[in-house]
Amino acid sequence: MLSTVVVNRYVTPLREGGSLPGIVEGDDLGTYVCKFRGAGQGLRVLVAEVIVAGLARRLEIPTPDQVVLDLDPAIARYEADEEVQDLLNASTGLNLGIDFLPGAFGFDSSVEPAPEVAGRVLWLDALTANVDRSWRNPNLLVWGGVLHAIDHGASLYFHYSWPGGPGDPQRFARQPFDVSEHIFARFAGAARDQDEALAALLDREALYATVAEVPDEWLEPVPDAETPELVRERYVDFLAARVAGERGWLPEVTR
């Protein structure tokens, strides 16, 4: 499980995208980007953030550390912005904290990534069906000269269908990945070259250990998976099927 930090202070909103994340200060004196459970996207975004960041670490892709942020509703009383106050009140309890990287800057065309790292990022995004890493929205930071992948919440789209039924892991395993808009599309060759080695790092045991980091209360019950453990098994089933299945999802090399 991720460690838990109590929020001492809400610092400022980050008005990017629709989820309105904010900078908060924890009782460990750390500063975090808080992804709120009360945001419109719901808890499954937080689940995807934790799982895909965990996979990134296993693939040696730098990504900021994460914690669980325990938010007391009293924090909202000191916030003048009504929109933020409503969000804080809706997010009482456990939220996701992502280590704030001071001095980091957004990735752009002036940065030339190492091909093997870019290939690993592309491979991970293809594996997890992450549609949100384009030139319009790279979701990459450079901190201390090192490329960091951030914002993984748009991954694992399959879990949104679970309230209607269990879904089919094999269908997800066969689903191709559209590389055309990806910021690292030109590194498809590097992704394919590393496929065997990267897949070997994500056996079922590694997948389960990664999914185990998600707090129980974020794993909402769905039909035929009414407990957190059964929901975890379902995530593992879907990811394991894609890792071990046919490689139709691997990025195609474009000319």
Strand order of the largest sheet: 1-2-3-5-4
What is the total domain count?
2
What is the mean predicted local confidence, pLDDT?
95
Unreliable stretches covering 5 or more consecutive residues? none
Radius of gyration: 18 Å
Structure annotation, total helices? 8
**Class based on secondary structure composition and strand pairing:** alpha+beta
Q: Determine the fraction of residues in helical runs and give it as a percent range.
A: 25-40%
Tertiary shape: globular
Straight-line distance between termini = 43 Å
Kindly estimate the percentage of residues that lie in beta strands according to DSSP: 15-25%
How many β-strand stretches? 8
Order of helices and strands: EEEHEHEEHEEHHHHH
Biggest pleated sheet: 5 strands, mixed, barrel
